[in-house]
TrEMBL record:
Residues 33-147 form the NERD domain. Pfam families: NERD. It comes from the Bacteria. This is NERD domain-containing protein. It comes from Tetragenococcus solitarius. InterPro entries: NERD.
C-alpha cells in the first residue's frame, strides 16, 4: 500500500489543528498533488498491468550514502523501469537540457535526477551481479498537463494518454519468477524519510486540542464507554481514537520523546487523563525503564504506520464498536 510522506502527514496534522504558513501551504499543496498523482498511476497499473507483474511502490534507497527515491519500480523480463510520476498541470517543453512552462524555467532538472537514480540502481545491480537493464520512465499523470520533448533523450517520457498503452505493452511478455531484485532493493531501502519540519513549543500551545473525527475532521465528538461518536455519523473505537491522537502528537513533536504531561494537554480537559496514562503504559515503550518520568519512545509516525504490524490486536479493539453500551 502506497504511503504518504511524513512531511505531508505533518502538514496535514498542523493544518487540521492550526494554520500553515504561506511556505507550508505551498508545500502541502505540492505534496498532496504529487501523492494524488501517484495514486492515479497505481490505479492505471491495476487496470492495465497483469496481476503477476513484479513491482515495488514508493522506494527510498540508500546505497552507501547515495539516496534515491522512486515512485514506482516495475520489472519486465530483464528490464527494470524506474518510474517518476509528475502531476503537473499545463503545457511544458523540454529543450536545450531544460524544462520550461509558459511561465518559468525549472531550476531542478527532473531528467538529471532520473539519471542519477539510474546510476545508483545500475551500480547496485552490477555489484550483486544481477544482469538487469535499467531504464527511466517519466510519466506525466495529469490529464490537463502535457510535455513536448525537443531534445534527444534516453528516457521514456509519457503523457497521460500514452500511459495505458505503455503499460499494456508489458502484458504479453513472460514474467520471471525470480524476485532477487526485490530482495536486493529492500535490503537497502529506507522505510521512512526523516521529517524535516518542527513544531516549536510556543506553536504547540496554540494548536486545537482534543480528538478529531477520522472521517470528517470535526472536534465535536461524544465519548461513550467504548466508542467515540461524531455528528457526521462516524463511530470509532475509543481506544483507537486515543491511540491515533497520541500518534498524532508524536508526529507533530517527532523530534522529542512522547511526554505524558504534554499529551494530556494535547487531548484537553474533555478527555480522561487516567485513560491516556493507561493507554501509554499498555501500548508504548517507556524510556529509562524503571523510572516513572512519563516519557515514552517516539517513532514520529502516524497511527497507520506506527501500528501497521498490530492488525490482529487492533481487530479485537474494532469489535468493541458492536458492544452494547450497557456493558
Amino acid at each position: 500500500m502506497r504511503k504518504k510522506s511524513l512531511d505531508l502527514y505533518w502538514l496535514e496534522a498542523m493544518k487540521q489543528r492550526g494554520h500553515l504558513s504561506d511556505e507550508e501551504q505551498r508545500s502541502y499543496q505540492r505534496l498532496r498533488k504529487g501523492f494524488e498523482g501517484e495514486l492515479t498511476f497505481d490505479q492505471l497499473c491495476h487496470q492495465f498491468l497483469e496481476n503477476e507483474t513484479d513491482y515495488l511502490d514508493d522506494v527510498t534507497l540508500d546505497y552507501y550514502g547515495d539516496v534515491s527515491q522512486m515512485d514506482k519500480i516495475i520489472k519486465n523480463k530483464n528490464i527494470i523501469y524506474l518510474v517518476d510520476i509528475k502531476n503537473y498541470q499545463g503545457n511544458y517543453v523540454y529543450e536545450n537540457n531544460a524544462l520550461r512552462s509558459e511561465k518559468r524555467i525549472f531550476t531542478n532538472d527532473i531528467f538529471e535526477q532520473a539519471r542519477r537514480s539510474r546510476r545508483i540502481f545500475t551500480r547496485l545491480f552490477a555489484d550483486y551481479h544481477l544482469p538487469l537493464e535499467i531504464k527511466n520512465v517519466i510519466a506525466f499523470i495529469n490529464g490537463q498537463g502535457r510535455i513536448t520533448i525537443n531534445d534527444e533523450l534516453p528516457e521514456i517520457v509519457l503523457n497521460y494518454e500514452e500511459i495505458p498503452m505503455w503499460l499494456m505493452s508489458m502484458r504479453d511478455h513472460e514474467q520471471g519468477q525470480n524476485n532477487d531484485w526485490q530482495k536486493l532493493v529492500q535490503k537497502y531501502q529506507i522505510q521512512f524519510y526523516k521529517n524535516s519540519r518542527f513544531c516549536t513549543k510556543e506553536r504547540f500551545k496554540q494548536l486545537k486540542k482534543g480528538i478529531h473525527c477520522e472521517k470528517c475532521g470535526s472536534f465535536s465528538l461524544k465519548t461513550k464507554r467504548y466508542t467515540i461518536q461524531c455528528l457526521c455519523g462516524h463511530t470509532e473505537v475509543k481506544k483507537i481514537g486515543y491511540l491515533r491522537t497520541i500518534c498524532e502528537y508524536g508526529l507533530i513533536m517527532h523530534h522529542l520523546p512522547l511526554k505524558r504531561s504534554e499529551i494530556i494537554q494535547f487531548f484537553g480537559k474533555k478527555y480522561s487523563a487516567d485513560y491516556i496514562k493507561n493507554t501509554l503504559i499498555n501500548y508504548f515503550i517507556p524510556l529509562n525503564m524503571g523510572i516513572k518520568d512519563g516519557r515514552y519512545q517516539n517513532y514520529g509516525r502516524p497511527f497507520d504506520y506506527w501500528f501497521e504490524n498490530e492488525d490482529i490486536n487492533l481487530d479485537k479493539l474494532v469489535k468493541r464498536k458492536n458492544w452494547q453500551t450497557r456493558f
